[in-house]
Amino acid sequence: MPATLTNQRVSTAALRSGVDMFGEKDPEETAPRVAVRFTLNLSFGEILGLLAFNVCELAEEDLGDDAAVMDALRFELASSSYRVITDNAGLALAYYTGRRPYAAPSYLRALGHAVTRVFGVASDEPFAARETSARLVPAGVLPADGCRV
Question: What is the pTM of this model?
Fold first, then answer.
């Protein structure tokens, strides 16, 4: 389904200095920043794709930490285009449902459980991932094993 614009407004908070894009303290950041809040409506596949194929991959032991999962999604949303989100969603669901083989089906199952637990959305199709010997990632994505958000 194509994206649609809604009447939801973008909201902002007070100007702050000394913080990075994510609001973390950074004394080297001198430009004032404003916090911008908006609503996105994401499907299970879109969240799964964002978290499965990203630069700073969540380690399997981090999937039990709701805050780590939410932080990873926040980072990925800030650094991904609409096309990347939709392309990765299709690929992630193809792996998750077994239409394409995947190198780490146990990780994908754990990631799917984390998405459902943290965000309350689930796949319409059951998990059926098949294992392959090679790590498959979308074009342009460079996985960095062990990188934490």
Answer: 0.74
Report yes or no on 99 lying in a domain.
yes
The C-alpha atoms of residue 110 and residue 105 are separated, in whole angstroms, by 9
First-to-last alpha carbon distance for the chain, in angstroms, is 30
- H helix intervals, 42-81: 44-52, 66-79
Do 113 and 55 have their domain in common? yes
- Measured CA to CA, the distance from residue 51 to residue 111 in angstroms comes to 8
pLDDT tens, residue by residue, 19-56? 888 888 999 988 888 888 878 899 999 999 999 987 66
Same domain, 145 and 75: yes
Write down the residue that tokens 């934490």 correspond to: 148
Residues 121, 109: Cα–Cα separation, whole Å = 14
**Residue that the structure tokens 């059926």 belong to:** 128
